[in-house]
Amino acid sequence: AIYFSTLVGPPALVPLYFQWYIFYFVVQRKQWVDLAWMLTFYIRFFLTYLPLLGVKGILGLHLFIESNWFVWITQMNHIPMHIDYDKNVDWFSTQLQATCNVHQSLFNDWFSGHLNFQIEH
């Protein structure tokens, strides 16, 4: 379970499941303009990085480095918080209850790009 949640899960979860589901949702709702913009992102991504990294480098960057970093950064600020049912609280207060700052250190500041200050972000 630990192996999956730290090494296999994050890189597979974000790019393979979430992005597939986003494409599925856009096509199902027939949001063709959004689909075109999404495709232009991937075209620009591949045109930019393919000459520099090659196919294996692009897949490594997107599937393992970038997505793993994204999962760690976003989840460390949101998962530990207790989220309750909607109690008709204003949006700002709900956002503050659903997130937290992460301990400040040189490593956390650098690794997260200062997103460890999630409340201020």
From TrEMBL:
The keyword Lipid biosynthesis does not apply. The chain crosses the membrane at residues 6-27, 39-65. The keyword Ribonucleoprotein does not apply. Keywords: Membrane, Transmembrane, Transmembrane helix. InterPro entries: Fatty_acid_desaturase (IPR012171). GO terms for biological process: lipid metabolic process. GO terms for molecular function: oxidoreductase activity, acting on paired donors, with oxidation of a pair of donors resulting in the reduction of molecular oxygen to two molecules of water. One of its GO terms (cellular component) is membrane. This is FADS1 desaturase. The lineage of its organism: Eukaryota, Metazoa, Chordata, Craniata, Vertebrata. The gene is Fads1_4.
